[in-house]
Amino acid sequence: MIRAARVAGPGREFLVDDEPVDIVLRDGLIEDIAPTGVLRSRGEVLDADGAWAVPGLWDNHVHTVQWALEAERTPLGSAGSAAEAAELIAAADPLPDGRLVGSGFRDALWPDRPSLELLDARTGSTPAYLINADVHSVWLNSAALRREGFTSRDGVLREDGAFEISRRLNAVDPAHCDAAVTRAGDRAAARGITGLVDFDMGWNADAWPRRIAHGFSAHRVEFAVYPADLDRAVALGMRSGARWEDDLIRVGSLKIISDGSLGTRTAACSHHYPGDPENYGVLTVPPAELEALLTTATAAGLSVAVHAIGDRAVTAALDAFTVTGASGSIEHAQLVRHADLSRFARLGVVASVQPQHALDDRDLVGILWNGQTSLGYPLASLWNAGAELRFGSDAPVAPLDPWVAIAAAIARTDGGREPWHPEERLAIDQAIAASVRSAIRPGDPADIVLCGLDPRTQAPEALRAMLVIATVLGGRITHST
User: How many CA atoms lie within 13 A of 16 on its CB side?
Assistant: First the structure.
């Protein structure tokens, strides 16, 4: 039993007031709810003492291994130039395998450009790998290029080359990786996470059961499959939503990366990038191939998650959903044509968005998308058009913290700046609804987060710092203060 909790978020509409209630949990579900003191105490009792309860929070877009290993890599987000980034990585301690690895730089705002000569001069013969914040490009020195068997005139690899480097960097010893993922899962539980969608670029069907077998129990997981493994998934009979070897693990979607990113200037857009009249971004999966993948996935019972950032890519993805009848989501949807807003709801396509990206990217948008005519980072526009929104972080691109996403969605600002496109702000109840998959009502999963403050009445700064008193997953406490 959770005793004396006040309900906020989905489920509150079934209660007559905000007075404390007792919530009875049995066999992983909410069995009963009644005013405090009406029900007899049974089993273990978690005394909420008037704290506010919301349903378990989800992060619907995480690159789990990359996020877990981020703590071991040199942060480069503070670099204001290529020269500064080279200095930071040169001053870092190599990993045990002898490589220098850093992440989080944003070169689109730098006054200078990454170059092989600059990085070689600072790092010498030690292999150096600098990962862009958007993970769609990496900057390597000559030693790293030789080690990996790549060539590049400026040392920068983009899109498929960058993804391959990330896969290799993430392919650490399984025991080391699993320990890092377990630590990261505990951090997520401390912020109220009870589930996440894993878009790690690997064969997750083996990795997650292995982690569970070694004691991982922090949250639920839906794991993605990538096109390279689609035939393997179909042969194994994988179907989205199906249990996979443990109650905490579910088969997720086929993940398809259909265009690039804003920071790497490869998101597929209607108008060219400034100063580069031939660059409209790239459709990395042509429309015919995209339709074929969606058809194969749908026939096998797999939903699809289509990465589409630029408006041209979003339109192509919606077209593919229309032709194939596939179900699933568009991931990111950072630039959306006005005419496409209503298509999300009409097709039943989820808009899986990352509210913090709007704040992190606003300066980039002012430079790289200042000539675009579509809507940038729409939230309210999608909601008002009837689309289902699901929030995520894209960790490690943004912090894996659902309260950061909620605050970004309702404020459209951080750091004291004026709200960016305030017309796209959501109400707090809408933001919470996009962060959960259940309600506090009998019959729903016993995934509950106890908060130190009522999230419905807090300023954005307080939401970002929300005290999570306890996180309950299927009736089991995964975090408590």
Answer: 2
Contact 222, 250 (CB under 8 A): yes
What is the C-alpha to C-alpha distance for residues 150 and 161, in angstroms, rounded to an integer? 8
Taking 70 as the pLDDT cut, the residues of the chain under it are none
Q: For residue 32, give the 3-state DSSP assignment.
A: strand
Q: Residue holding tokens 């398809």?
A: 256
Tally Cβ neighbours within 10 Å of residue 42: 11
Q: What is the pLDDT of residues 174-215, one digit of tens each?
A: 999 999 999 999 999 999 999 999 999 999 999 999 999 999
User: Which residues touch 327 (CB under 8 Å, ≥6 apart)?
Assistant: 298, 303, 304, 348, 349
Q: Which two tokens stand for residue 358?
A: 């709007």
Structure tokens belonging to residue 474: 């299927």
Instruction: Report the alpha-carbon distance of residue 5 to residue 54 in Å, rounded.
Output: 10
pTM of the model: 0.95
Of residues 252, 173, 282, the one with CA closest to residue 437: 252
For residue 396, whether the previous peptide bond is cis, meaning omega lies within 30 degrees of 0, is yes
* CB contact at 8 A, 426 and 379: yes
